[in-house]
Amino acid sequence: MAAPAVVGTTERRRATRVSTGARHSPFLARRRRLFWPLLLPAVLVYLVFFAGPSLYTFWLSLNEWAGAGPMTFVGLDNYHRLFVDPVFRTSFANTLWIILGVGGATFAVSFGLTMLLRDMTGRKATRSILFFPNIVPGVILAILWGFLFQHDGLVNTAARAVGLEHPPNWLGQEHLFPVIMAGLVWTSTGFYTTILMAAVDQIPRELYEDCDLAGANAFQKFRFVTLPLMWDVVGVCAVLWTITAVKVFEFIYAFAGAAGQMPDTGVWNTALYTYGEAFASGGVPRYGSAAASAVVMLVLVGVLVVLIRRVMRREAVQY
Q: Nearest Cα to 244, choosing from 195, 202, 204?
């Protein structure tokens, strides 16, 4: 009865010696010595250009400052001012519309294109065409979108051709923000379709052949094969969209603004609100409230990213 115990003890001692020898090997020792010299430049860049400015922005949000002269500490007054300001509330609501409404439409179209392009001949060329709007600067896309929706633009011309004699005034205040949302869907869909298609390309073809033998239709293939096997990529795309949506600026500014003027406050999001507070065309700049708006945006992104990761977390799928 003592033999197994002796054997087990011997094996544990041998494993301990191997582990101890590995920890003290020359290769691992050299790698440990290189760890901080290689990591330190990246840490310094992060602290100087990201962590430092973020902390300073938070400090600035607790002060009243016009960009020159001394700061006046006001505590949380800037945050209180934000939430009683109807312009900020409208901007915050518009930001949520962009995150949820534009994001939902973008992913719905991307999923549809993924189902369509999976077995399509020439899908690589089509994918490149869909990705093209992401190569063009957003300002140019906004100007092009404005030309499409002006009074004698392509959209109204097509509407009259199908019998609509009095098409809507797309650039009027009542339709302006929905048109902006549609433009954001157009500019974003190709990027996420490309990422999702790259994930679909990694799924074994045999799984789809089994679905064909079972008589599954396209939607069932997407629901039971494609979506589960690219779920992790969908989660990454959701996080990327959330971060991008909060920072949307140039498309709205170039599309809805006039020369040298800010757009109407009805189409502002929190990014434009922050810009308007800091670089107002008239009046005294309010860097404190602009910084407070930026902090609110940062908190919003952090909360949404944590929620998305929790909701979309699941066991890894092996195939």
A: 195
pLDDT at 199 over 50: yes
Helix boundaries (H) for the chain: 2-23, 26-46, 52-61, 77-84, 86-96, 103-117, 123-131, 138-149, 154-161, 173-200, 205-214, 218-221, 227-229, 231-246, 250-256, 270-278, 287-311
pLDDT band at 104 (very low <50, low <70, confident <90, very high): very high
Please give the full DSSP string across 126-140, using - where no structure is assigned. HHHHHHGGGTS-HHH
Angle in degrees, CA 318, 211, 114, rounded to 5: 75
Q: Indicate if the pLDDT at residue 272 is higher than 90.
A: yes
Residues 6 or more apart in contact with residue 149 via CB below 8 angstroms: 155, 156, 170, 171, 179
* pLDDT tens per residue across span 162-182: 888 788 888 888 889 999 999
- The pair of three-digit structure tokens given for residue 142, joined into one six-digit string: 């906004």
Contact between 93 and 86 under an 8 Å Cβ cutoff? The reply is no
d(CA 232, CA 235): 5
222, 119 Cβ separation under 8 angstroms: no
CB contact at 8 A, 113 and 130: yes
Q: Structure tokens of 203?
A: 């799924």
pTM (predicted TM-score): 0.83
Cα separation of 168 and 183, whole Å?
17
Q: State the pLDDT at residue 302.
A: 93
Tokens of 97: 């519309």
